[in-house]
Amino acid sequence: MSSDRTLITVAPTGAETAKADAPGLPVTLDELVAAAEACERAGAGLVHVHIRDAQARPTLDLARLRDTVAALRERTSLVVQLSTGGAVTDPFEDRLRVLDAEPDSCSLTCGTVNFGDDVFANPWPFMVELYQRTQAQEVVPEFELFDLGHVTALNRLLDKHGAPYGGRVHCDLVMGVPGGMPGTAAALVAAVQALPAGATWSATGVGRTTLPVALAALSAGGHLRVGMEDTLTFAKGQPVTDNAQLVARAAELATLAQRPPMTTGEAQAMLNVKDRRPAHAAG
Ligand code: KMH
Ligand code: ZN
User: How much distance in Å is there from the Cα of 191 to the middle of ligand 1?
Assistant: First the structure.
């Protein structure tokens, strides 16, 4: 399904990069909220959130997650999506508990994938348990697809367990991870052709596949995900300064493609997220 507007998702932090290696990486709550505000101004509609603890290590601590969701809702009108992927070392139980922080949306990865030297584990029973909890807890899942086989697993999940909460199927192709599908136009087309009918999708290319994937996604009618979770080099020899720089470039590309960034209200409507915002909050 094509759209005349582009949803720009920003993934500002991730779980893999150390602050020492990327000074612009938002690791505290204040840094994350400031980054989210700047990205909203630059054209983002959704924020995909990983958080860090007091030592800047990845964490799925529920109290911190709740505070993060509340702060992002207070200061932005972005769709707030919590990662259930966490770090490769996070236990399944902790990843399932993320939903108790009541985000608008959560990531749901549709299969196990080699992840550099590690394994990002998403066996079928875990996928099903997480999916059923999203339905029960009224959280809109975003299906993360790192490989073509993940698209097959997504179709199987929907066939066996019905429609997601909100009724919309929205996917994100995560391309160029060492061990997953390559960040090429050919791989993107193969994955998009296999998506469930009517699904919306974004794509992100990790590392040096960022631009080829963004351009292929725009030309194939998709949406964009960018951010320091996926990309730390803006151009050859030029480190990314902050997340808003990546969002601004994505917004320029989308505008050039005559599919300018959608508003946060349009993003909420496209994904059909539950309205959990207090009446006084932004948006
Ligand atoms: N950090 C990766 C192992 C997600 O957020 O759902 C998993 C990941 C996917 O980032
Ligand atoms: Zn993530």
Answer: 19
**Per the structure block, which two tokens stand in for 280?**
């006084």
Ligand nearest to the CA of 15: 1
Give the global pTM.
0.98
What are 48-76's pLDDT values in tens digits?
999 999 999 999 999 999 999 999 999 99
Work out the number of other CB atoms within 10 angstroms of the CB of residue 177.
22
| Residue 233 alpha carbon to ligand 2 centre in Å | 18
Q: Which residues line ligand 1 (CB under 6 A)?
A: 14-16, 83-85, 87-88, 107, 109, 115, 120, 144
DSSP letter (8 states) at residue 162: -
